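Bench notes, bay 3.
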Amino acid sequence: MITAENATRLGQYQVDPGKSSISGLSSGAFMTVQLHLAYSSRFCGAGIVAGGPYRCAESFRAAAFLAEDAFEQSAINLCLNPLLPQTAPNPEHLAQLANATAQAGEIDPIVNLAGHRIYIFTGSRDDVVAPATVNCTRRFYELLGVDRKQIAWHDNIPAGHALVTDNPEDSPLATNQPPWLNNGGFMQSHAILNHIHDNLQPPADRATGRLLRFDQTEFFDGDPRACMSEYGFVYVPSAVENGTTARVHIALHGCKQGYDYVNFVYGRPDNANQPPYGNRYVTTTGYNTMADSNNIIVLYPQVRGRDDDFAQNPDGCWDWWGYSSPDPGRPDYYSRNAIQIKAIYSMLRRLGG
């Protein structure tokens, strides 16, 4: 078993400050929005594939008697699968909530978002995160001052719930099942990076840099509440290792896509049936070849499944409804105080971004 003891320590490089970017799929897309707003001064853009708006799980706080149950019910019934487009999250309300959160000093000032470029995608065959919810994400960013011309909006491709690739071994385009990577004839990671960043070179024919695994535990002090894996991954182009100035892109996997994901049965990990696709988000999604020809460091933080007194997260999702908050009735998952957001931001700072 590979553990943090035989993983490397995340290194530091020459990085252009304020030019970093972030993208994610599904729970990674929800986390992308949260991290983007929490540290908008550090980013220039974001890519959101099948993700909802900021603090989406708090759309209807009266959904249940207990606050933590209300957040989960809102996440499931309003954010993921609203019965009608009219019952999807209210972007006006969530934009007001984002502004109030910034005024309280819990996230960076909203004004930072004005010049950012945003890529937003929903597959028309997605039956996991409803297109109506993703459309709310587009409207949410517009309400926060992002110019429509800066938002690349895609909703006309018959894709299921997945990051789209051109890998023939990935699932058919309309599929809605793990590993949540579908072959649609193009690399969505390339489209994301090309929209966010100007004048990128075409991807390299093959990645020639180094894909490193590093100890993640130092960034969350080994706290089990973080629900983060023992190590993460980072791709570093060879030119960057030799001193060339770089940018950082953070790529966040979705549920059931972490390297150490296992199915949970009756609250226990079923290690005998561990899926065989745990590192494909890191190795086959096309980020690394695009990074290689454009001096981009790609950071792949990892979250794991957990179903116990510390966290109820059996599917290994990033926290966008509050399972990692120390007080379930007063969640902090969306702020700079959130344990996962602090950990990822600390990784970005270590890299130099």
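Next record in the batch:
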Amino acid sequence: MGPLSRSPVVRVFLVALVALAIGCQRDAGIAERTGAAPGSTSSAYPIEIRDDLGRTVSLPAEPRRIVSLLPSHTETLFALGVGARVVGVDDYSDDPPEAARLPRLGGLYDAHLEEIVSLEPDLVLVSEQARTEALERSGLTVWGGSARSFEDVFRVIQTIGRMLNRISEATRLSETIRKEVIAVEQRAAAGERVSVYYELDAAPYTVGPSSFVGVMLEKAGGDNVIPAGLGDFPRVSPELVIAGNPSVILGVPLADLVARPGWDRIAAVRDGRVYRLPPEESRLVVRPGPRIAEGMRVLARRLHPGDSP
């Protein structure tokens, strides 16, 4: 994907989201996947849990030393109240501040195997896109997976909660997030819909309406000008964006668009409603984890600058 590899934010975004979106797996679906009995509030070890690679992960006891190699997993662990158990993280885990002070252990394809082994984790959390073979050969217990759609965030929270004997905490966290999402959505619904284009890369790559970010845009009051039939993260022609004539463009500086042939005809460019999100806001939008409602608020403020959801 060439230019996509240049941006750390885009790299993290693609790690978590480029896979095909999957639907919500709540209640009975979560119970089947994690081995938890419906309605149970604690984990009875040993337990076996399926990961997104189709493997059965066995946990003989409650994990006490955890390595997280995906920012959304790191944020989930701290949100569940088990941050003190995290002994190392990937290079991009920077929230909460405590996570940023932990040993940095590489990324998706360059995890620091010797350092990870030296930390003696009893659970390593990675993306389903990660290379897990070396970790497993070293005798480590590895769960591979991530949220690949908006609703899938809640499955991953519940699954991590199940692995760490934090089922009640995971349920409460999910309920809190849903309430915050609904509050942003309701406030955005009171305003006019705004046509929007979100650019990931100058190729240009963008987000389809069914993607994680696409759903966030819709809930925040935006109508994506990219047709659903092109996929979740398509590369599109500039002519398609020009024809869509979005009122707001996100993810790219205005100066870049002014220099592109024909883009000066787009309403967002003419009106100056083009925003390259600062890194801290971009991370809120592209990480499918417990801060998705905050990411929605970021989008809503750009779509409706006179309002503050």
